[in-house]
């Protein structure tokens, strides 16, 4: 499944290079027409990230997301600075299908495990962003500013006790670079955690990347910059998945 991604900063569509707020590119698109076209072409779900909310909860772009959700009947998952049940409830109240939990999965892991039980595993996506150091998949948090000693494998094991289902895994070194995804990473974790529906994110630059990711066994492929910069069309991307 292809999941187009849109990051928002101050109400505008933006892409960061390797998560760096100082290295950003804004995209001047007619967002609502763009979303209508995605729906028309067969896209089922989109991924939205609140970069303002990720830095400061008080700056959450709730009105923007409310407008987006009310404008489309595509399923929407939203991440960025979700730290409390109130944050989750507010997004579900807007009509969000899934919430994406990042740093809190490490900093407040027992609460997040409880959220999986309260809301159900199909409503929570864990965003586990990693740097691979000496073959260890170490998770970074706080907008990738802080590397932890928690590994991808140990974290998935911890939350699997509450039937964890959805994991969005990003190789930070690939994000926003158009340098190609880390195919071997996804091949490895798909084989190790057969109960997880992995969403692959980072580095997709061409149709061959999509085919390779689809063949790796991931459930979904998140695509941001390459679609915005018209490296290929959404029709071509969707067709790749159908033909694998």
Automatic annotation (TrEMBL):
Pathway: Amino-acid biosynthesis; L-histidine biosynthesis; L-histidine from 5-phospho-alpha-D-ribose 1-diphosphate: step 4/9
Catalytic activity entry: 1-(5-phospho-beta-D-ribosyl)-5-[(5-phospho-beta-D-ribosylamino)methylideneamino]imidazole-4-carboxamide = 5-[(5-phospho-1-deoxy-D-ribulos-1-ylimino)methylamino]-1-(5-phospho-beta-D-ribosyl)imidazole-4-carboxamide
Family annotation (SUPFAM superfamilies): Ribulose-phoshate binding barrel
Class in the EC hierarchy, top level: isomerase
One Pfam family hit: His_biosynth
Keywords: Amino-acid biosynthesis, Cytoplasm, Histidine biosynthesis, Isomerase
Annotated Gene Ontology cellular component terms: cytoplasm
One MF term in the entry's GO annotations: 1-(5-phosphoribosyl)-5-[(5-phosphoribosylamino)methylideneamino]imidazole-4-carboxamide isomerase activity
Gene Ontology biological process: L-histidine biosynthetic process; L-tryptophan biosynthetic process
Compartment annotation: Cytoplasm
Active-site residue list: 7 (proton acceptor), 129 (proton donor)
Primary subcellular site in the record, as a coarse category: cytoplasm
Annotated family: Belongs to the HisA/HisF family.
Protein name from the UniProt record: 1-(5-phosphoribosyl)-5-[(5-phosphoribosylamino)methylideneamino] imidazole-4-carboxamide isomerase
Lineage of source species: Bacteria, Pseudomonadati, Pseudomonadota, Gammaproteobacteria, Enterobacterales
Gene label: hisA
């Amino acid at each position: 499944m292809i999941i187009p991604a849109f990051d928002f900063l101050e109400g505008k569509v933006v892409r960061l290079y390797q998560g760096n707020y100082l290295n950003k590119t804004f995209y001047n698109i007619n967002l609502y027409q763009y979303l209508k076209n995605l729906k028309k072409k067969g896209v089922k779900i989109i991924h939205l990230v609140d970069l303002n909310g990720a830095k400061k909860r008080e700056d959450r772009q709730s009105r923007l997301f409310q407008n987006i959700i009310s404008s489309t009947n595509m399923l929407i998952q939203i991440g960025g600075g979700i730290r409390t049940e109130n944050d989750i409830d507010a997004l579900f109240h807007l009509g969000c299908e899934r919430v994406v939990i990042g740093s809190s999965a490490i900093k407040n892991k027992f609460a997040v495990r409880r959220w999986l039980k309260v809301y159900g595993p199909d409503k929570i996506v864990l965003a586990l962003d990693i740097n691979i150091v000496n073959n260890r998949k170490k998770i970074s948090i706080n907008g990738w500013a802080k590397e932890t000693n928690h590994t991808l494998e140990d974290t998935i094991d911890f939350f699997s006790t509450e039937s964890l289902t959805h994991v969005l895994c990003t190789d930070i070194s690939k994000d926003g670079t158009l340098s190609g995804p880390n195919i071997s990473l996804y091949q490895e974790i798909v084989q190790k955690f057969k109960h997880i529906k992995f969403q692959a994110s980072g580095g997709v630059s061409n149709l061959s990347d999509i085919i390779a990711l689809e063949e790796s066994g991931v459930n979904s492929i998140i695509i941001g910059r390459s679609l915005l910069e018209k490296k290929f069309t959404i029709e071509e991307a969707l067709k790749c998945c159908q033909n694998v």
